[in-house]
């Protein structure tokens, strides 16, 4: 029997019902960040100067490598397939060093993030730095927040047109300079800059500049915070790097709430009141357009400008700085427990203070010790291990290499006196920008000698040959062994190369083939 | 057509088209999409006018810019030829031995010769120039007609026993099957084989030497070292074009096989022949 009384009807609503369906696209709301001032703002100016300085000037540094190599300190020479970095020269087969550096950059990012949160996003990310630069231009031309908002809302006048055109023009110039600086890493900078302005540079140079101008202008000027919020995967990944001991920009609501615009009046009525006066200074300066008082959120790049803004207000009110501060989740939680009396009541800021108004001893403050914990030790260890490995490999790497290709068609040649000859393409890699005389020797294969095709070197078991600076030299070497010395169809022997000047050497194990019958 | 009708479910106006009570919603395309669409049409018109595009009965429109992919290829080939011009001119002006003394020119000639070899010579001499029975191995140091750069060039230019070239290298070993007896053939074969290896019956060597002295020394020489004037092979070395051992030698004495190589200069021209000579000389046996 069915019992209809057992049926329960659930009170629920669909998330996106047909009746109330909204588009998935949300139009951007314009953000007009106010200029902030304070310690973090000064630090950001410094980081911006250094990073932009590195980007724009590195290509112009010189490094003398002698007459046989370019004298640009950092150069990615695609034509000759060389990468120069100060005292290091990298050949294509050594590109793993760059891969190693990228791995180090990754682990380094983990380390920084687990220690001080999204510091990369807030200070050093090119998106952040260039948006900052673009905002400097915007403020200089259109004024600070209120002036910009007024201008934006106002009708299109000649003045507005003039301001807007000049702003976008300067942005485009910055974009072009960004693309322009990029290409100097790929060719001799002084030469290229001349070619660039006389219109004789390679088309790829102009195309690169055009593309980077477009991306810089679009990302830095037009899209700004949307790049971080919608396009960038880092906010998602970095969030996973944070734990309860990571420093992040935090609104300390245990001392700020309940916020009030009329503190005195509320206090007079006997209600508790926090330090936050709800002045919205933190919101006005935020380049991401968020309210940090809503807590840690995906959009927050932790640029710390809200800390500067709030500290300024606290100073004026005569209260302690740090209503918004870098804090760890564990400290925050401890202080919240204190302020809510163990979570039993709503926030009562008086619980964290003593009778005379100072913070009680129980309030947790950040201690540098918290940065050193197993997680950061592991990242630090991993980072140094890879770094030391790369450094060791770099210091002990070969600058004289040898590759040997054994002729396979024919595998061997019988000569008129019955001896057997094998051909080899011997490739000598002189990986330093100096002319070197390399001695090539054979080891093993009794009775055999070698001759070099197209050279007047007499047959023997050793010869010396000059190899041009920073070049690969291919020699056709014929090795002969008399018939009566051959004892196997395939014998192994070694080619050895040595630079007598600095004793660098290398070896290659090769095979010598003979017909089955000859023994 | 009635007044504007709004669909109750979606809240979207309809076009007025109705089939069996089902109305078509009026969801116009986004404006940017429509503009892009028209731009592509305009672009297509411009593009197909500028470039070859519209098919006609026997050909297609040529396009206003006069572009043609064949012309591109032609230009590329001309550019490649021009880039090679310096080397080609030098090869034309110099003899093969002179080319060998110039490293850059030699390298160019070896590369060009290797390509020409792959097309014209591998059919007989093999892709590694290793030859096979009846076709000489060009890697070794045994040369029937000489292994100097100019001798190699001479052989490639005029060929071997190539009837239609008056300057071709010519020699003919008689078929001794008609001249000497079968016993004498066995004896001389044993003698020749003994010069570079062991033989089955050593008693044949002595009479064989006599037969050799009477019949063979004119071309192969007193010491059987051969004579490059006639392309007579050295019979004392380890290299045998038609096989080693008494049986193979006897067959060659009785009714010799004689290889023919065409004269290549008419087909490839002087420059290619020189490049081929440099390449063959570079294989390791060049003198």
From TrEMBL, chain B:
Q: How is the cofactor bound?
A: Binds 2 heme C groups per subunit.
Q: Does the keyword Signal apply?
A: no
* Entry binding sites for heme c 1: 121, 124-125, 261
Name of the featured protein: Cbb3-type cytochrome c oxidase subunit
The record's subcellular locations are: Cell inner membrane
Supply one GO CC term from the record: plasma membrane
One BP annotation, GO: oxidative phosphorylation
Q: Give the residue spans that cross the bilayer.
A: 32-54
Cofactors per UniProt?
A: heme c
Q: Which one of the record's GO molecular function terms can you name? A: electron transfer activity
For heme c 2, which residues are the binding ones?
173, 216, 219-220
Domain named Cytochrome c: residues: 108-196, 203-284
Q: Which Pfam families match?
A: Cytochrome_CBB3 (PF13442), FixP_N (PF14715)
What family name appears in the similarity comment?
Belongs to the CcoP / FixP family.
Q: How does it assemble?
A: Component of the cbb3-type cytochrome c oxidase at least composed of FixN, FixO, FixQ and FixP.
Q: Which PANTHER family match?
A: CBB3-TYPE CYTOCHROME C OXIDASE SUBUNIT FIXP
Q: Which organism is it from?
A: Mesorhizobium wenxiniae
Pathway, per record: Energy metabolism; oxidative phosphorylation
Q: Which UniProt keywords apply?
A: Cell inner membrane, Cell membrane, Electron transport, Heme, Hydrogen ion transport, Ion transport, Iron, Membrane, Metal-binding, Oxidoreductase, Repeat, Respiratory chain, Transmembrane, Transmembrane helix, Transport
- Its biological purpose: C-type cytochrome. Part of the cbb3-type cytochrome c oxidase complex. FixP subunit is required for transferring electrons from donor cytochrome c via its heme groups to FixO subunit. From there, electrons are shuttled to the catalytic binuclear center of FixN subunit where oxygen reduction takes place. The complex also functions as a proton pump.
